[in-house]
Amino acid sequence: MTQEKERAMDDLIISYFDETISPDELTQLKDWISESSENRAYFKALAKIHKASSIAANIEGFDAKAAFIRISNKYPDLKPTNTNKHFRQIYFTVAKVAAIIIFGFILGYAFDHVIHSSEAVNRDVLSKSEFTVPLGSKSKVLLPDGTEVWLNAGSALNYYSNFGLKRRDVFLSGEGYFKVAKMKKPFIVHAGGLTVKALGTEFNVKAYADESITQAILVHGSIAVDKIASNNEKTRDEKEGVILVPGQQVVYHRPATASAESILAEKLVVCDINPQSAISWKEKCWIIEREELQSLAVKLERKYEIKVVIMSNDLKKFKFTGILKNESIEQVLIALRLSAPIKYKFIKGTVYLSDSK
């Protein structure tokens, strides 16, 4: 390969990482990567370096050229005919992060995306990672940036392969507790008509598809919550945003229609709350505080993978307080019966609750 072509390919790679590459250029880059295993390995190494650049953004005080040479030695098959000239155009982009790569901060997903796509980078062609939690269980997920996420029963979380390139977007259906790793790039949860933006904090988001309410609760740090102004996830209503402090909850009643007018008509309601009881679902002890049977029944359905039918409208408003420590559904039903005028029948996975009066 001539030096001119090497420089041209370097320019295409930089354009790809900057998300300024055109469809024709992306096709050209894809063809070049497919030509040889050396080209694929070269691109993959640079993709890993680029992914780690955010970690090294503030690293000072190391010999960039020496670090770059160490990276070249780490990938001996990638050495070009003239190292200094070949890397001249991309040297300043990647050299500063080379030392970090040596110590193991190698991340990245761009390689697979370029191999399998023929369009510019967008959500339609990016690969997607998805985590789903079935009813009757809960799960903990570790995201590529180090963020920890606890997912409640019947929940799903997904993100795309551009996660972390410019910001960290995830999409939640259900309920999740987020312990966000501190980085300069914002962490944004899209859920139930809201976006919840954080830099490094802990919060809970609840947005089940079969419920009309989206809730966000802040435990530590600070979050900004905005409504999504239409079906387009990129369009947001910036004027209706709120910023929460620890111990606050925002509640959003999702409109029946997704028109901009109906969304703008619904307000974000902020109130104080005890976050520990609200997030206890992820712990061994589930704290229930003055919760109506109607909403408690929905949580029991998800937790135990059952169906709950309340036969009496009067029972739906009964409020319950208590702590559940991994009790079986039978034990929970006995506790309900002892604290309210309730009798129950358990038939083929369905619990029927009726008034015992």
Gross morphology: elongated
Q: Count the domains.
A: 3
The total count of strands amounts to 18
Strand content: 25-35%
Structural class: alpha+beta
- In DSSP terms (H or I, runs of 4 or more residues), the helix count works out at 11
Q: How would a crystallographer describe the biggest sheet?
A: 13 strands, mixed
Low-pLDDT runs: 54-65, 78-124, 230-238
Any idea what the CATH architecture of the largest domain is?
A: Sandwich
Distance between the termini: 87 Å
Order of helices and strands: HHHHHHHEEEEEEEEEEEEHEHEHEEHEE
CATH top level of the largest domain is Mainly Beta
Question: Taking Cα atoms only, what radius of gyration do you get, to the nearest Å?
Answer: 26 Å
Remind me, CATH topology of the largest domain? Jelly Rolls
Q: How much helicity do the residues have? A: 25-40%
Question: What integer is the average pLDDT?
Answer: 77
Structure report:
With 357 residues, the chain is an alpha+beta fold. It folds into three domains: 3-116, no CATH class; 128-276, Jelly Rolls (Sandwich), CATH 2.60.120.1440; 284-355, Phage tail protein beta-alpha-beta fold. 31% of the residues lie in helices and 32% in strands. It is built from eleven helices and 18 strands. The chain has helices at 3-17, 23-35, 37-52, 64-74, 83-86, 91-102, 110-116, 260-265, 275-278, 293-304, 329-339; strands at residues 128-133, 139-142, 148-151, 155-160, 168-179, 187-191, 194-198, 202-207, 213-220, 223-228, 236-244, 248-253, 268-272, 285-292, 307-310, 319-325, 342-347, 350-355. The strands form three sheets. Strands 1, 2, 3, 4, 5, 6, 7, 8, 9, 10, 11, 12 and 13 form a 13-stranded mixed β-sheet that branches. Strands 15-18-17 form a three-stranded mixed β-sheet, covered by helices on one side. The chain has a two-stranded antiparallel sheet with strand order 14-16. The termini are far apart. The model is unreliable at 54-65, 78-124 and 230-238 (pLDDT under 50).
